[in-house]
Fold this protein.
Amino acid sequence: MYSFIHSLSTNFGTSIFEPVAKSLALLRHKDAMSQQTAGVRISSEAHLVIQRIMDNLSTAVSSPNKTEEIQAIRAVCQTGEMKAVKPTKVDLKIIGHDETIYLIDIKTAKPNAGSFKEFKRTLLEWLAATLAVNPTANVQTLIAIPYNPYEPQPYNRWTMRGMLDLEHELKVAEEFWDFLGGEGTYIELLDCFEQAGIELRPEIDDYFGKFNKQ
């Protein structure tokens, strides 16, 4: 049963959350695409800046500051040798009407604390790869968590506070969906999920009944 629930969580990301997010984003933004490549090259100097940022965050020498990190990477985004890279695919790429580029990594609702170091590096690499092509681009890289498992309590953000700039790099539940489709989107989406759950309840109960008989 645990294996089945875990597979549901994973499949929701690619089969439901991504396409729904893309459709909603197209209603409010200039363009939206899923499973995109941020870029194929990062400068050697940008690599060094990214490593320095990661080292300082890991040792708590500095706190996450997205604005300063963007400035530091932008300053060297085309300096030194351009090295080929294969960064993680961007789950959702949005182009705003003001040409701002949003690169979003959609994660399951309860990633473990250790994962955020990997997430942070991915966001920085996306930034460097995008700026390597267009140094003047306005790029925002984000982690999105589609729903809050602690509802009605606030999402427990302390586990990522030392690695992510919570104001500029994280959108959880209502923040994420309302950013995509406008105010009230999250509530409407919850209603849609509830209606689907009611309609499919007999099939769901029948499936889980198999486990109860074992």
User: Anything to note?
Assistant: The radius of gyration is 19 Å. The helical segments are 2-28, 44-58, 66-76, 115-133, 166-169, 174-181, 185-212. The CA atoms of residues 108 and 145 lie 6 Å apart. The chain has seven helices and seven strands.
